[in-house]
Amino acid sequence: MTIAQLEPLPLRHLRRGKVREVYVVDDERLLLVATDRVSAFDVVMAEPIPYKGAVLTQITAWWLGQFGNDIHHHLLSSDADEIVDLVPALSPRRADIAGRAMLCRRTTVFPVECVVRGYLSGSAWKEYREHGTLAGEPLPADIRESERLDPPLFSPATKAEAGHDENITIAQMTDVVGPDIARELERLSRFVYERGRAIAAARGIIIADTKFEFGRDADGRITLIDEVLTPDSSRFWPAESYQAGRSQPSFDKQPLRDYLDAERRAGRWNGDAPPPPLPSDVVHATSARYLDAYQRITGTNLDLSELS
Known about the structure:
By secondary structure, the chain is of the alpha+beta class. The chain contains eight helices and 16 strands. Helix content is 32%, strand content 23%.
């Protein structure tokens, strides 16, 4: 089953993101449901990407399982049967949430994205190439595109409701959340990134950069929330083809981006909504990238039996 627009669940709908629908279970719990919607260049496509929502949900659950008790996180369950047992109102809709729903603790979210960059790429490379800086702060000279950064850079960003997040300095982040919280968010972000990077490296995957979100739960604990080390929140590169000094192929929606870039260059799309229709080969190639990322990271194929 491919889901772009989820029919309303028998819970209070809290908000709709580009990918996720968020529902209130009670004062202590939320239900996050990842659809197969896909966005590129800040525009949501009309066509869903099969299995994308399940990949984002289940790879997050897998990563959180790798951290054990070393990190406090919001996930209570991503298993449909357990979720239905805990929230019986969802019993008639089990098929809709199977594989793509996370039952989570509610938190008060810190209004920053915690980005860790192990390699210089993306928006950071663009700023560095033009100004030699990141968020206005100077970086060493002569860093090449996609070059490894040792140690990794902690590079916070704003949380934008629409459009792109904007890189900010740690000092600006400290002004928002306070010095103690800023230090702890950086420590936790570095810990999760380094642990994830080591696990992925053993599987032939480079995690070039990633972003995390945190909140404070009802007991006051700083809690890792939302998706973790997914192809949407991270830049995954195949280690066997890595070479500094150029852009890298990635395990995400690159086929979609390449198609849209070609449409813009040809003058058939101006970069705004509505987007051009996606050919079936682009949809299938993008879906295959997500499934490949899941298999490479977890070592198993995603169970599609309840999703097809």
